[in-house]
Write a structure and sequence with these properties.
Layout lengths: L1 H5 L12 H8 L10 E4 L5 H10 L5 E4 L3 H6 L7 E4 L5 H4 L7 E6 L8 H14 E11 L5 H7 L2 E7 L6 E7 L3
Parallel strand pairs: 1-2, 1-4, 2-3, 4-5
Antiparallel strand pairs: 5-7, 6-7
Helix pairs in contact: 2-3
């Protein structure tokens, strides 16, 4: 709540995502030990925890979170994640070996950002995803769909009613 009150445009919700929303996102991919995975806007770590538990990655999960108090809540995963601050600097943050990402999960409130910032982020996501890689994001509105349709070949939308508020999960696949 404190983080939301401090910067409501950067924090999507005052409560963490429900287990139903998290599971709906993770179920969209086939996580393997060798999967290269990025999470944008890790927040309190509910999605982080599920990704780590379901994949048992053999290398750190790459996490972006710029809120210092939320970052502290991610310390419990310190040995299993690498944290970066600025999700809007994906290309600059990752080295060349990390730029062939299988899956990118996002909890960022994408529609709270200016159109040109959003488009730039989607371009960076496209750049670091490997061909056939997937971008999975949730929002509380379906209005992100036109931006995603313009950036990806395949985009689908799922509704998760068992979340407060109900959420939309977008699953996008990078062009081959």
């Amino acid at each position: 709540m404190k983080s939301f009150m401090h910067s409501p445009k950067a924090i999507g919700s005052i409560i963490p995502s429900s287990p139903y929303l998290v599971q709906s996102m993770v179920n969209q991919v086939n996580l393997q030990k060798n999967s290269k995975v990025v999470e944008l806007g890790a927040g309190t770590g509910v999605l982080t925890e599920t990704i780590l538990k379901e994949s048992k990655l053999d290398h750190p999960l790459i996490v972006f979170e710029n809120n210092s108090s939320l970052k502290q809540s991610l310390n419990r995963f310190a040995s299993e994640i690498t944290i970066f601050d600025d999700a809007f600097n994906l290309k600059g943050s990752l080295n060349e070996q990390e730029k062939s990402i299988d899956y990118i999960f996002s909890g960022l409130p994408l529609l709270n950002f200016k159109k040109e910032v959003l488009i730039n982020l989607l371009d960076q996501i496209d750049y670091i995803l490997k061909p056939g890689g997937k971008f999975i994001a949730f929002q509380y509105t379906p209005f992100l769909l036109p931006y995603l349709n313009a950036a990806f070949d395949k985009t689908s939308l799922k509704i998760v009613p068992l979340n407060i508020p109900p959420a939309f999960v977008f699953v996008c696949e990078k062009r081959h």
